[in-house]
Specification:
heterodimer; A: 6-stranded mixed β-sheet; B: 116 residues; 10 strands
Chain lengths: 111, 116
């Protein structure tokens, strides 16, 4: 079992829909949780970062972490065609050097 | 300001040849990271530099892989005697490092390596 599991999709939804993206993980020592967005042939860019459990909101994006269930989510409201990309969850232990990534979910927003 | 840059953007090589991949981090960033993104495998952490030092090289896939960083800036990832399974996108990231705290990693566009 990989440390971080993420459904690769593709996930296709109509414009304006609420999108829910999720990851599960097995390492209870993970404390930092991140969501990256990656457009085709580009490097990942950070969308959201959360420390430990809880929710964080930034515009149309909400990140949730449930450490008791080892489950993290990213919600996108009022989805736009420009949101079409691969969304990668990432996490790390405190003081860790590298990030542990999920495989990424390919999201398609249909106009 | 300028972001992380990587060169070349694409590299096609023959099996058995050596390749060098270059990363220029964001100016002033002390930490530098290399990742590999293979089809269907997600991003895999390879190695991290704090300054010119790489404290842990265990993430490198084999002894054909090596990395160095000079002057606390540019880093090169070298793959010797390339194999077809080395084909992937190699991503570099940098951050301002404060150990024990969260440090956002800024990624470059990657080098797409194809081994024929």
């Amino acid at each position: 079992q990989k440390e971080v599991e993420q459904d690769p999709g593709p996930l296709s939804v109509p414009e304006g829909a609420i999108v829910s993206l999720n990851c599960t993980y097995s390492n209870s020592a993970f404390q930092y949780f991140m969501w990256y967005r990656q457009y085709s042939r580009k490097g990942p860019e950070l969308l959201m970062y959360t420390y430990s459990s809880g929710n964080k909101e930034d515009g149309r994006f909400t990140a949730q972490v449930d450490k008791s269930s080892k489950y993290i989510s990213l919600f996108i409201r009022d989805s736009q065609p420009s949101d079409s990309a691969t969304y990668l969850c990432a996490m790390s232990e405190v003081g860790a050097d590298g990030l542990t990534f999920g495989k990424g979910t390919h999201l398609i927003i249909q106009p | 300001g300028a972001g992380v840059s990587q060169s070349p953007s694409n590299k096609v090589t023959e099996k058995g040849k050596d390749v060098e991949l270059r990363c220029d981090p964001i100016s002033g960033h002390t930490a530098l990271y290399w990742y590999r993104q293979s089809l269907g495998q997600g991003l895999e952490f390879l190695i991290y530099f704090q300054g010119n030092s790489a404290p842990d090289k265990s993430g490198l896939p084999s002894d054909r892989f090596s990395a160095e960083r000079t002057g606390g800036s540019v880093s090169t990832l070298t793959i010797q005697r390339t194999q077809q399974e080395d084909s992937a996108v190699y991503l570099c990231a940098s951050s301002g490092r404060h150990r024990g705290l969260y440090n956002e990693q800024f990624f470059g566009p990657g080098t797409r390596l194809t081994v024929l």
